[in-house]
Structure formats: structure tokens, C-alpha cells
Amino acid sequence: MHAAWNFLLKRAGGSQVALAQSKLVEAVLFAPLFVYFAARTLPPAGVVVLLVGVASTGVLANYMSLAAAYRHGDLSFVYPIARGAALAMLPAFGWIFLGERLTVTSALAIVVIVAGIVVLQLPALTRDGLR
What we know:
single chain; 131 residues; mainly alpha; 5 helices; flat
């Protein structure tokens, strides 16, 4: 499903309008599920507002960056970086900002993910491939 959404965004030329439309459809489809399953156990309103603000800012920055990348790059170049970067960055953010423990296995997994992203991109990292 995620790859299909990225394909459609790329096919739309990385359009901000297509991005906004897809997010609106998601909100309409998933809001009832959220209300049914999660709204009954929410933390205090102030905490919810803070969490929604922080999460919304991050998600907006992510989608704006993704749309811009698709305007300038191929799906086969942008998609692995976009998906892999999040997998590599989340544990690092948890370690830096939340004091999570990063085990040797976790660190090796991050290295493997980053190495995979780099290896997938090697053919495109030529002078002509970057144009």
C-alpha cells in the first residue's frame, strides 16, 4: 500500500495538490477508526495538543520533502532513501532525545540499512544519473 501511494505521488509529478488530496482522503477514512479505538483513552487535552502539533510538524515536513524529491528524482531513487532513512533515523532520535539504549545489534542494523540504501543508489550516483 505504501509503495502504491508513493507511485501515485510520483506519477502526479510530486504535486502538492495530489499530496493534500491524499492526506484529506486518509483523514476522512481513518478518523472514524481513531474515534472508535483511540479517542476513549487519550491523555489530557494539553498533552494531546502538544503531541498533535509536534507530530503534524514532522509529518508535514516529511511529506513536503517527499513531494519535492519526487518532482526532481526517479521513484527508484527517492523511494528507498525515503523509506530507509526513517528506519535509520528513528532509533538514533530515540537514543539522542529519549535516552533509549542503542544495542550493538541495533547499531549494526542501522549500518546495514544505510549500506543498503547506498548500494541501491550506486548506479544513479554518476554525473548523468544525478541530472
